[in-house]
Specification:
This protein is α+β, with helices and mostly antiparallel strands. The chain has one domain (about 10-185): 3-Layer(aba) Sandwich (Trna Endonuclease, Chain: A, domain 1). The chain is about 35% helix and about 30% strand. The protein has helices spanning about 20-25, 35-55, 70-85, 130-140, 170-185; strands at about 5, 10-15, 15-20, 85-95, 100-110, 115-120, 145-155, 160-165. It has a 5-stranded mixed sheet with strand order 4-5-6-7-8, with helices on both faces. A 3-stranded antiparallel sheet has the order 1-2-3, with no helix packed on it. The chain is globular, with a radius of gyration of 17 Å.
């Protein structure tokens, strides 16, 4: 059984704290040259865009609540849904690997062109190098053989989008390597 504490963003199973996918992949992301205030603002924007898209998927979005800086990203998401005829099969779903003891929250599983695709929403200019290992980790924890593909959906501030397929066969081994490093550092902290 998996429990999630939202304020601390902590996952727990019967044995204790379980690392999150994003936490495990920190070695792949270097934010050291980005001022903390800029980083915090970007993280906040990403959180608000994710929430707006989730509420939109549920037909529960109050249009008046959409902030000006979120609106173009939401427009991009809506355009993608319209253009692709994507059907949302899962949204903001927690996943857990009991085998490897990690957890995370995947953004979407969509039905696209007859295939079930695990899609991660991004509000960045380019798809981060961590997106492949991130979605591979979610895919393995989801353990649904019907979900066969992975992609990053980049929502842009000009209201456009780009869907980037994630196909590198090294994504899963890269995640496992990061998980091994994470466990080593925890053990010797």
């Amino acid at each position: 059984m998996l429990a999630f504490d939202a304020p601390s963003h902590t996952y727990r199973d019967a044995l204790g704290v379980v690392p999150g996918v994003t936490q495990v992949l920190r070695p792949l992301v270097d934010f050291s040259r980005i001022p903390p205030a800029v980083l915090a603002a970007k993280a906040d924007l990403g959180t608000r865009v994710h929430l707006a898209c989730e509420l939109d998927d549920q037909d529960d979005l109050d249009e008046a609540s959409v902030q000006d800086d979120v609106a173009p990203y939401l427009a991009a998401y809506r355009r993608f849904r319209l253009d692709s005829w994507a059907e949302v099969l899962a949204s903001e779903q927690q996943v857990y690997s009991s085998t490897h003891r990690y957890a995370g929250t995947l953004d979407r599983v969509l039905l696209l062109d007859g295939a079930r695709v695990l899609v991660d929403l991004k509000t960045c200019i380019t798809t981060p190098t961590s997106a492949g290992p991130q979605t591979a980790a979610y895919l393995h924890a989801l353990a649904d053989p019907a979900v066969t593909r992975r992609a990053a959906l980049r929502l842009r501030p000009d209201g456009t989008y780009r869907l980037d397929p994630l196909t590198d066969p090294n994504d899963w081994p890269t995640f496992l390597g990061c998980l091994a490093v994470h466990r080593h550092l925890e053990k010797h902290a």
